Amino acid sequence: MNATTLAQLQSGIRDVPNFPKPGVVFKDITPLLADPALLRLSLDALQETMGDQKIDKVVAIDARGFLFAGAIAERLGVGLVPVRKKGKLPYTTRSVSYDLEYGSNTIEIHEDAIKPGERIWIIDDVLATGGTAAAAAHLIAGCGGKLLGMSFLIELSFLEGRKYLPEGVPAFGVLVY
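The structure corresponding to this sequence follows.
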């Protein structure tokens, strides 16, 4: 990704001070989403991080990850698997609880969403403390999937979330703060 493209993408990220709590500067992606050229650039950038990997399914993390992962899955002609907050999936699920930057959470995946040996890529909007992505990786492993990589539109590197991601699995942040 070249510097011009990165600057264009950064122009679509709005800083919102003191949200969701005092002292936090929230990286708001809604201006980027509202601009079709920036949205397309963000999808291009995320897809570029995947290289020429042959994958079977893209895993989307609830909720903003759905916005990017669905489009990437369609572009690649592969399946999309939602990982959702507890109680949102209608069928039999696997679940895992974890800590995140503002508390704790539980996410779930349908137990039959990933077949053993399927090649998987995670897409989400933000890598912060790493809890959600690590939990999703745990769910994928529990289903027998092979996690090939993870891509995030934004990485908040000062929160050191990478250290909680599975060892040996490539992780990419398009915009690193």
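Residues 36-49 form the longest helix (14 residues).
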